[in-house]
Amino acid sequence: MSLETARNYMAQALSLARQASDMGEVPVGAIIVRNGEVIAQGHNAPRALHDPTAHAEIGAIRSAALALGNDRLTDCDLWVTLEPCAMCAGAIAHARIRRLYYGASDPKGGAVEHGPRVFEQDTTLHRPEVYDGIFADEAADLLKGFFAARR
Q1: 76 bridge partner residues
Q2: Which of 29, 83, 119, 135 has its CA 20 to 30 A from that of 144?
Q3: Which of 57, 83, 120, 138 is the catalytic position?
Q4: Cα distances (angstroms) measured from residue 37 to each of 11, 121, 137, 144
Q5: Considering the entire predicted model, what is its pTM?
Q6: What percent of the residues of the chain are helix, what percent strand, and what percent coil, each to the nearest 5?
């Protein structure tokens, strides 16, 4: 994959994260790509939807599954601006996402390289290829700015 392609996908996820921020939600955005085409997207919306599971990844996974008419997203890649939490990592495994690309690390709530490291557990039946740190500074700056404005 070219740097230009990676930049394009993460730019789309960051745009969704900005939309979440504009709504007062923690700025996280996600897209799902299949055969080079964005087939689904999501951004954080727990407050707007009164749903603690309305994370960016969950929204994108639900949309992709509906679009494809299949709960298994084996030929799909997920791009997200922040390291997924345990709930989202579990959903990624259950959906059989092929590759996970994420921006900023999340030492407090992340579950891929931090915390429970979901994909390293023996009980996790599917493990996507994981690529971290994709435009991490941009994603981290968006999060830092969001929380600084609320302090």
Answers
A1: 34
A2: 119
A3: 57
A4: 14, 31, 25, 30
A5: 0.96
A6: 40, 20, 40
